[in-house]
Design goal:
- The chain has five helices and nine strands.
- The protein is of the alpha+beta class and about 220 residues long.
- The chain has a single domain, classed as 3-Layer(aba) Sandwich (NADH Oxidase).
- It has a seven-stranded antiparallel beta sheet, sandwiched between helices.
- The chain is globular and about 45 Å long.
């Protein structure tokens, strides 16, 4: 579905998910994340870029495991996360939209929990490439963990946390031959509906991930 059609459908009412490609298991047990390999940080920073042309090739389960851990997994012996958050509130949750369903990433258990047995990738953004790329991440803010913070501060704190997670994903992709792009032009109400979010959960950003159609990323753009 092209961008214009999506935009018009969004104005008429929330765009709808499509049937999943295959069965959607209620839980995806992720293998332990690999903490070895990749490339030096300076090299990853040198090759980090945004990609908007993706192959449809699905990500191996190990790659998905490593990517989600990089985004906001447990580190330091399970005492912290790979991404910072204000007051260590851990108020931003990562959702993974796959061809076979949409899942909530449980960082403590390192598993994916099914939230929608439909293919919601087309809903996660207006751009046409989100329909077929193998993975769209959605960053969702939960109000309750930041309840001690003033209402005016919660939104910037949440976006700061989501931005840190997204940069972790950028660097992981650069180090592992993947491409990604962070997106703010999204129909947040439609995404929230597709994921079955509660009234106190808010969609912040989406990030498309996959193998670059033209091969591994090169120099920074």
């Amino acid at each position: 579905m092209n961008t214009l059609t999506k935009f018009v459908l969004g104005k008429m009412g929330a765009p709808r998910p499509t049937p999943p490609l295959g069965d959607a298991p209620r839980q995806i047990l992720l293998p332990p994340p690999s903490r070895e390999g990749g490339m030096a940080l300076a090299a990853a920073l040198s090759t980090r870029r945004s990609e908007r042309r993706f192959a449809r090739t699905a990500l191996p389960t190990q790659t998905l495991s490593d990517l989600l851990w990089a985004a906001d997994g447990m580190n330091r012996g399970g005492a912290g996360r790979t991404a910072p958050s204000a007051l260590d509130a851990q108020d931003v949750i990562v959702y993974a939209a796959l061809a076979r369903g949409a899942y909530r990433y449980d960082a403590r258990e390192h598993v994916l929990q099914l939230v929608a047995g439909t293919d919601v990738r087309r809903v996660t953004g207006y751009q046409d490439f989100v329909d077929d790329a193998p993975l769209d991440l959605v960053y969702v803010h939960q109000e309750r963990p930041l309840s001690p913070v003033s209402v005016l501060q919660r939104t910037p704190y949440a976006y700061a946390s989501a931005g840190a997670m997204a940069q972790n994903v950028y660097l992981f992709c650069a180090a592992n031959g993947l491409g990604c792009v962070l997106r703010a032009w999204i129909d947040r109400d439609a995404v929230a509906q597709a994921l079955g979010l509660a009234h106190n959960e808010h969609v912040l950003l989406s990030q498309t991930v996959g193998y670059p159609l033209d091969g591994p990323v090169g120099a920074d753009d």
